[in-house]
């Protein structure tokens, strides 16, 4: 971004501008690597041959190495052509499209993942409905996102986006996720959702900053007021 250029919150063009950062472990998207690893820990091995995992907002496919060997056909959906090219290089079947209108058949997914995407969509209810519709009965929904709270706006935007190496304008405060609405919309789609708060492990983060550790583990916390995961299984009656 040129010096003095106006920052447009949640501008999709940012991801094309930063396309070279996706796979740099210490680049602008470093935390997305840590979150992808945490997300993958919630995904069990495929229960049947040909199982499909749909990765909404897949970016450059950061989830791919963490689920390799689990037996899924990994389909990634994103708007960024530059990111999708990198995802394809990592074994993801790349589909360019809007996560609210995915060009895949309803009930075709064994797992749907929505990692760090729900805080970027203009219509949360529509996107959640699409995620739930993609799941077959008994399918698993896994997500992580930022809560619509004052604490989250301060820590994840006001503070985080002023740290060295962190791009500005990644998030629009108006799009942070209402947890109650998220749970209601998932239930409407037949997926009872459980939430848990997470954060980077403090000691890992310190060692990473000192270049004594290659990555940072995400750990559970008793509040979902900032960063949280959600997990749920689609009910058979839906």
Could you please describe the fold and organization of this structure?
The chain is of the alpha/beta class and 238 residues long. It has one domain (13-233): Vaccinia Virus protein VP39 (Rossmann fold), CATH 3.40.50.150. 29% of the residues lie in helices and 22% in strands. The chain is built from 8 helices and 8 strands. It has helices at residues 13-17, 30-40, 64-67, 81-89, 124-134, 150-159, 179-188, 202-209, and strands spanning 52-56, 73-78, 93-96, 109-115, 135-146, 194-200, 218-221, 227-233. An 8-stranded mixed β-sheet has the order 3-2-1-4-5-8-6-7. Helix 5 runs parallel beside helix 7. It is globular, with a radius of gyration of 17 Å. The termini are far apart.
- Span between N and C termini? 46 Å
Q: Radius of gyration, rounded?
A: 17 Å
User: Strand percentage, roughly?
Assistant: 15-25%
Tally of strands: 8
Percent of residues in helices: 25-40%
